[in-house]
TrEMBL record:
SUPFAM superfamilies: P-loop containing nucleoside triphosphate hydrolases (SSF52540). Gene3D superfamilies: P-loop containing nucleotide triphosphate hydrolases (3.40.50.300). Its EC number is 2.8.2.-. This is Sulfotransferase.
Amino acid sequence: MHMEKIIASPNSSSGSGVEELTNNDNIEELLSSLPCEKLWDNYSLYLYQGCWVPSIFLNGVIYIQKHFQARDTDIILASIPKSGTTWLKALIFTIVNRSRYALSEIPLLASNPHELVPFLDNSYMKNRSSIDNLSSPRILSTHVPFALLPHSTVTCNSRIVYTCRNPLDQLVSYWHFLLALYPEQTTMRLFPLEKVFEMACQGVQFYGPFWKHVLGYWKASLEQTGKILFLKYEDLEEDVNFHVKRLAEFLGCPFSVDEERRGVIKAISKLCSFDHLKNLEVNKSGKLPSGHANSTFFRKGKVGDSRNYLTSSMSNHLEKLIEDKLNGSGLTFKKIIKSS
Ligand code: PAP
C-alpha cells in the first residue's frame, strides 16, 4: 500500500512528536523510530503515541493532530474499528438531517454511510478544503483514541459520540474485515484467527490496544457528560429506539412530541437497521471511492457471533484479560455465552 507524505517529525525519546518534516529522510526516520508490526507486504501497524495506527492512516492521523480545527457545532463519531461505526454514522446523519430531508429521500438510501460522514484520519489530509468548507453542523468520524484526538476537538464545545462493542465480537468482526480487505486465501494464510487473536491480546490491532481505546473515552465521558456520549453496540441492539431518542437529545435536536407521535423515532431505527441498509442496492453492489466494497461493512450485524469462531479457551482468556484491564473503571461488557 502506498505510503503518503508524512508531515510530522519523530520525538527522539518517544518517537511521537509532531513537528514539520521537510524531506524523505525524516519520514523514514519517523517510521524507523516507531515500533512496528508488519502485517503484509508494505502494510504495517506503527505504535504511535501508544496506539497501533495502520500505516495507511498514520500520515493522516498526524495531519489532523496538527491541522484540524474543530468547531463548537461539530459532531465527532469516534470508535475503535468494527464497533458499530457504520450504524452510528447512519443514525447520526439521519437524526441530524431529518428536517432537511424527508426520510423517503434521505441520501442514506443512495450512499453508504461512510460517504456521508467523512473519516478524518484519511480524508482530511487528502482533501482538507472539502471538510473545512462543510456547512455546520459537520458530522465527522475518527478511529483515534481519546489521547490522540486533535486538541481543538477536546477543548471546544464539539460533541463526541463514542461507540464500542464487546471485545470478542469486535475481534471476530475485525478478522473478517481483514479477510475481506485482501484475497481471502492470502489473509487466511498470513492471519489465521489464532494469530489475529494473539496479536489483539498483546494490544496489536487497528488502533489498539482495545482496552486503552475504550478506557480513554470512558473516563473522559464520565468527566464531561455533556460533551461525550459513550455507547455500546449491544445496548443499541437491545433497544435502538431508546438510543435514537437519547442521541437526538445529546446532539441538541430532540424529537418533538409530534415527531414521537408520528413514529419518527421508530422510522429512523428501521431505516438504519442492519437488514435495511445491507439490502440497499448501493450497499450490495456499490464501492467507496477507495475501491472498497460497501458490502464489507455489513456482514452479520449480530451480538454474540464470536461464539461461532472463538474456542471457549480463547473467549475465556480474552474476557479475563479485558476484565483485568478495565478493573476499577466501572466499564464492563456483558459476557458472550458459548453455546454447547
Ligand atoms: P468500521 O470500523 O470499518 O467502520 P464498523 O461499522 O464499526 O466498521 O463495524 C462493522 C460491524 O458493524 C459489522 O459487524 P459484524 O462483522 O459482526 O457483522 C457490521 O455487520 C455491523 N453493522 C454495520 N451496519 C450495521 C447496522 N446498521 N446495524 C447493526 N450492525 C451493523
